[in-house]
């Protein structure tokens, strides 16, 4: 067995044995120096071998252009592929009015475990939602297209929207922030350990390729696995 995989397995098994049920498991990466100089409002998505949960089990919010009803009528139409997909569809204007205070923003943040937005309004959201939503990448709004590029202007295609949501649900998001510590969710402690290890191994490999690659100067200093309350256990180098 590859030495790096053995290190990942040992660390994850040790972590799970001391963790509570259904705790999130994060890959935490420490860089030699900041990878970006300012926060990128669009997260980087990495596909996972094993999805974290069923799409229908997730509390999904979609932020759209005004007026929202034209989008709601199409996506929530009886029989549409997206009929039961979203917990809420909200327009930019209504979102802005809803999160005027820190308390309101916290309530909104806790209401969903996935936030997506029409790519045409994504540039407006950092000012409305602030750093709270962009801190860890957990609920960082992920832009989607409302229809295929060749579709007429302002089209809404439920089938294409669901296709993108399924791809996002099979991925994890990495928020690129100016600091030297970045993290992304790879699973939960109640997952089958082998599935959790495969997720972690796949993401670590992709991160090493993206950040180190063939550069003469390595970017990644070390990688650890952890839960929100646990100590960090090393998996690289």
Automatic annotation (TrEMBL):
Query: What InterPro entries is this protein classified in?
Result: Ribosomal_uL1-like, Ribosomal_uL1/biogenesis, Ribosomal_uL1_3-a/b-sand
Gene3D superfamilies according to UniProt:
3.40.50.790
Pfam families noted in UniProt: Ribosomal_L1
**Taxonomically, which superkingdom?**
Eukaryota
> What's this protein's name?
Ribosomal protein L1
Gene source species:
Trichomonascus ciferrii
